[in-house]
Structure formats: structure tokens, C-alpha cells
Write a structure and sequence with these properties.
This protein has no helices and six strands. By secondary structure, it is mostly beta strands. Strands 1-2-3-4-5-6 form a six-stranded antiparallel barrel. It starts with 19 loop residues before the first strand and ends in a 9-residue tail after the last strand.
């Protein structure tokens, strides 16, 4: 017998797939990422050490929904890390200074440089399928 197809399905948990996740970023004086460190869902560091940015492959800005209570203002960076990993991160310019704390109490880079500036707005990783550069 087939169950009633019109029966309510009941409450279900919803979750975003490949949604943005907080990431620690060490930026230079101009605000460009120099090193990044992933944070896990449990609040602990996913990567044992920060990964240096070898090259910024692209940068773009999105300003949208300015008429809403929470407008969107993001500065995106497509990064190539020293280990060949491609990563897309963005700084949420509308969020203010809400950058996540490093779970290990360490900066994203090896040490904060004299030309480092505080993060303005929270940084997030836009998760996509993992890709690496093949040699």
C-alpha cells in the first residue's frame, strides 16, 4: 500500500549546502589576504597552521540590496595558496568588525607584521568543490 501522498511531511531541518563559513585572514596594509586559516564548525582550527597566499587570482566587489535592513556589501578574492589550493574568500563589509576569533589564539599568519591592519568586517570562505593545481 502507498502512503497518502498528501500527508504533511512534518518539520524538517534545513541547512545550506556549500554556504559561507568563517575563516581567519591575515591581510596586508591594503587589505589583501596574505595568509588564511580555516575554522571548523566546532570552532576549532581545521588547518594546523595558516596557509600563505601565493597569488590573488581575482578580486571583485558586490553591493546589492542597499534598500534592505541588512544590505549586501562584499569584497571577494579568488586565491591560490602556496600548496596549490584554490580558495574564494570574501570580506563582509556590511557586517562591521565581526571577524571570528582564532580558536588557538594565533594570528592567521606566522606573526602579525608591522603593516598588518585590523580586519574590517568578517571574513568568510565561499565553499566550493575542492580543487588543487596539478604540476
Amino acid at each position: 500500500m502507498v502512503p497518502d501522498p498528501r500527508a504533511p511531511l512534518g518539520p524538517r531541518a534545513h541547512r545550506v549546502l556549500n554556504g559561507p563559513t568563517p575563516i581567519l585572514v591575515d591581510a596586508d596594509a591594503a587589505g589583501r589576504p596574505r595568509a588564511v586559516r580555516r575554522i571548523g564548525r566546532d570552532g576549532r582550527a581545521d588547518w594546523p597552521a595558516p596557509r600563505r597566499v601565493e597569488r590573488v587570482r581575482d578580486r571583485w566587489r558586490i553591493d546589492d540590496e542597499w534598500w534592505r535592513e541588512r544590505p549586501i556589501a562584499r569584497l571577494y578574492y579568488a586565491l591560490l595558496l602556496e600548496d596549490g589550493t584554490f580558495l574564494t574568500v570574501y570580506r563582509d563589509l556590511a557586517a562591521g568588525d565581526l571577524a571570528p576569533d582564532d580558536p588557538d589564539g594565533q594570528p592567521a599568519g606566522d606573526a602579525p607584521a608591522a603593516d598588518s591592519r585590523p580586519t574590517e568586517g568578517a571574513w568568510f570562505e565561499q565553499r566550493e568543490p575542492a580543487t588543487t593545481l596539478s604540476s
